[in-house]
Amino acid sequence: MTTTYIVLLALALLIIASLGAYALHLLRRVKQTEALQKEEEALAEMNLRKRQQDLLQDIRFISRSVVEEQCEITEGVMRLHYLVTALDPVTWQASELTAVRSHHSATSDMPILEAYKALTPKQQFAIDKKRLTLEEDNQASIRQELKWLCRHQFPNVTLLQ
Fold first, then answer.
1. Rounded to an integer, what distance in angstroms lies between the CA atom of residue 23 and that of residue 49?
2. Of 14, 29, 41, 87, which one has the greatest count of Cβ atoms within 10 A?
3. CA–CA separation, 65 vs 112, rounded Å?
């Protein structure tokens, strides 16, 4: 009977050792997966931070270009709408950008590129006149708001902080 107990005990120890080795193997795989996941998260965060920094740089560049009259107001406002809403939609709704939003609303439906070229010269003239009148009327307030936008820190964009 002792031989049977010894064999059963040896078999039990072998099973326990096998299960322990398998548990150790699974633990290593979990740690590898967690490390890979952390690496992927860090890479994604780095890419997002880079994208946000690029957007911020573009926003400031276009804002300065409009302020320094190197870019037309309407073109700058159209580009800034896309960039600011991509970076921080809350900032686009800020009270400091009221004239910019108003100008965007008034000009966003105007045809551009091929749609503009397809218009008759008379239609093009009417659109240009409306656009230039809007730019002239809003010029001072838009430039002031874009100066604010150049200095704005975008507090809602956490990765920039």
1. 38
2. 87
3. 20
